[in-house]
Design brief:
With 200 residues, this protein is mostly helical. Helix content is 69%, strand content 0%. The protein has helices spanning 2-6, 12-30, 34-39, 50-58, 66-87, 89-110, 120-130, 142-161, 166-189. Helix 4 packs across helix 6.
Length: 200
């Protein structure tokens, strides 16, 4: 019990997302993908179905299997707490929701016959956002440029040379979201760790 009292729930948005995603992934595996298809992936379905709109956000919680989940959560849990400390829980949740919505909508519009699931778009948003921690107005950090060239450049190349580029587009969109959020919030945060409650 003493050990449990020492454990701190230090990043509520990131940890809650990871735990809910774990439950969603396990539920999908136990039901042979039924729960995942019902609630945790985006695909073309009836516009009047409320689940169609819910899945635009919840698709980031679903994963195809344990390896898919572990691969995404490794980066998510490393980068997420730093982003939540810098921007605040409410702002980070807003950025995650916007990124999920955009990647879901683009997937529906451009790839109607494919299903999209997983937190990789959010992970790429975190990667680019983390590279912009020290952005100052009027200055471009070299770390940010390297991240854009290495990560997003690789995804652009992969998307051009492979037939199925749904996941690459998701990664690129996530990175672009991170770039936009980083520039937009840089003058407002001023290096503080309190976040901007008016951002979202």
């Amino acid at each position: 019990m003493k050990l449990l009292r020492r454990i701190q729930y230090n990043s509520p948005v990131v940890l809650s997302f990871a735990l809910v995603s774990l439950a969603a992934t396990l539920a999908g595996m136990l039901t042979n993908g039924y729960i995942t298809q019902l609630l945790f992936c985006v695909y073309r379905s009836a516009p009047l179905n409320p689940l169609t709109w819910l899945r635009l956000f919840t698709h980031t919680l679903g994963h195809a299997d344990w390896n898919h989940y572990a691969g995404n959560m490794t980066f998510f849990l490393v980068l997420g707490p730093m982003m939540e400390e810098k921007y605040g829980s409410r702002t980070l949740l807003g950025m995650m929701a916007v990124t999920a919505l955009l990647t879901g909508l683009v997937s529906l519009l451009l790839f109607p016959s494919s299903a999209l699931l997983g937190a990789s778009g959010l992970v790429f948003m975190f990667i680019v956002l983390a590279s912009m921690v020290h952005v100052e107005q009027g200055r471009v950090p070299l770390t940010m440029l390297l991240v854009v060239v290495i990560y997003l450049g690789q995804e652009l190349y992969t998307g051009l040379v492979t037939a199925d580029n749904v996941s690459q587009l998701t990664h690129i969109l996530g990175g672009v979201c991170g770039l936009v959020f980083g520039w937009w919030l840089a003058p407002r945060t001023g290096g503080s760790h309190s976040g901007n409650p008016l951002a979202f």
